[in-house]
Structure formats: C-alpha cells, structure tokens
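Case 119 in the screening queue. Each case pairs one protein sequence with one candidate compound; here the compound is zinc ion. For every case the pipeline is the same: read the inputs, emit a complex structure as tokens, and attach any notable structural observations.

Predict complex for case 119.
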Amino acid sequence: MFQSERSVLIVVDVQNGFTPGGNLAVAHADQIIPRINQLAQHFANVVITQDWHPQNHISFAENHVGKQPFETLELEYGTQVLWPAHCVQGTLDAELHPDLNIPTAQLIIRKGFHSTYCI
Ligand SMILES: [Zn+2]
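Case 119 output:
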C-alpha cells in the first residue's frame, strides 16, 4: 500500500507526556508507536504535531487558584478542562516519544504555545 503523492499522514502528539510515565499519560499509548512507524513508511507526506505549552498555560489546573486537574472552567471560547501541567516547552515530557521513528516526516507543528488560550 502506498498512498498518493497528495496524501498526508498526520501523527498527533506522540510525546512522552501522553505515554506511560508522562504527566498526562494515556494507558498503553506507547503500544501503538510501532504501528505508526510502519504506517508512515507508506506515506509520501508525514506531518507530526507536538503539544508545546508554556508553564503558565491556561489549561493547567495549577494556574488557577483552588482548581484541580480534570475540573472545568468557563473561558471566553467555551468550557475548558483543566489538565495537570504537561508537555511544557523544553522538558522531557514535551519531547517526541523515543520510539517514534519517522525520518521521512517533513514538518513538526508545535501547538498550544500561547499561554492565554488552549488551541
Ligand atoms: Zn496540552
């Protein structure tokens, strides 16, 4: 299987922070990484995203007095779930998972780097 030259595989947030041991880990999330690596070999275009938050990010519970992770807060753009601090810029938690091996990826998009809104 090889996708067309116009197809793009978008690999979203395969980072230490979202895999076991991370600050916002998803159980067993690391188990899908070999499949992602394999799948990427069949795409001419691969884009990777990376959650990349400043320490004072609005979605972090610790930045709101009296709030705990997974509580919500109403903000101008709607309801925001408050997260534990995760994927802080420059930390190990924010790095792409070491098992991710896609040397053909052309672009890494860092997102969430504005402190005052979530997206
Ligand atoms: Zn995030």
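Case 119 observations:
- The domain at 8-111 is CATH 3.40.50.850 (Rossmann fold).
- The CA atoms of residues 38 and 102 lie 9 Å apart.
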